[in-house]
Amino acid sequence: MLSLQNIKKSYATHNAVNDVSFEVPNKAIFGLLGPNGAGKTTLIRIITNIIGADSGDILFNGTPLSKDHTIKIGYLPEERGLYKKMKVGEQLLYLAQLKGLSKKEAKNKIQHWLDKFEITTWKDKKIEELSKGMQQKIQFIATVVHEPELIILDEPFSGLDPVNAELIKNEIFELNNNGTTIIFSTHRMEQVEEICKRIVLINSGNKILEGEVKDIKQQFKKNLFKVVFEGNAPKIDETAFEVKVSSENELLIGLKEKSSRDLLKELVKQNINLISFNEVLPSLNEVFIEQVKEKHA
């Protein structure tokens, strides 16, 4: 759906985005990741036509990105973007009409979402009367009410309690299942692993990693295996394997000269009462920290 090609953006002497290229597949939930100051927000603002790139190209469904595409995009920023003195219903109606909906169509779609979130009674409340979590739910409705083809969510779970975070997460999956492409930007790596299939990692304005989540975890694995057992502990050949962690009924074993198949054969040969034998893959959080530290170094 979205193709970024050699995007550059500078502010005075600061390179916010430096020759970044990546593609967001159609109907994907795509993670845009990076530490604070990495350039994520600048990229989002370029995609949403809030600011322009200094150079490079963006294609939206194969055509150069233009102001006309803005109506096909829904953007939920990290910061609150609601008018505090306006009532919830008035606010949503105003924003929906800005996105091209007629007054009648906007009212119907807004009512649908208020009913879905069971918050119809909030319709006449002012934004300033709502908690941060409630405001976030209203802002989410404003983002999706016009049924955009591309939705960009920047820290969408900010301010939400676990129940409402689960509610929004389920809505993200439902929107995606109905064909909406979603760019998901967050610092919470556990959320990325749960929600995103493909990611790009940006640091100091540069792309340092891109790919399928499952492939990235395979790429950075450490050849570690977790062995859970009952009864007698296995005797490990330390010339071929390395015991990283040992507890009463668990071993974390690293491979040296032999394969995982050799390790499993050895455990079976010793008649160990195995409960489980699993490869330990790194979390995205571990990959994220390792890559960012490496690039800083």
List the helices and strands and how they pair.
Elements: E1 2-11, E2 14-24, E3 29-33, H1 40-47, E4 55-60, E5 63-64, E6 73-76, H2 88-98, H3 103-116, H4 132-144, E7 150-154, H5 162-177, E8 181-185, H6 189-195, E9 198-203, E10 206-212, H7 213-219, E11 224-230, E12 241-246, E13 250-255, H8 260-269, E14 273-280, H9 284-296
Parallel strand pairs: 3-8, 3-9, 6-7, 7-8
Antiparallel strand pairs: 1-2, 1-4, 4-5, 9-10, 11-13, 11-14, 12-13
Helix pairs in contact: 2-3, 2-4
Structural account:
The protein folds into 2 domains: 2-212, P-loop containing nucleotide triphosphate hydrolases (Rossmann fold, 3-Layer(aba) Sandwich); 222-280. Helices cover 33% and strands 30% of the residues. It has 9 helices and 14 strands. The protein has helices spanning 40-47, 88-98, 103-116, 132-144, 162-177, 189-195, 213-219, 260-269, 284-296, and strands spanning 2-11, 14-24, 29-33, 55-60, 63-64, 73-76, 150-154, 181-185, 198-203, 206-212, 224-230, 241-246, 250-255, 273-280. Helix 2 packs parallel to helix 4. It is globular, with a radius of gyration of 24 Å. The model has no long low-confidence stretch (mean pLDDT 90).
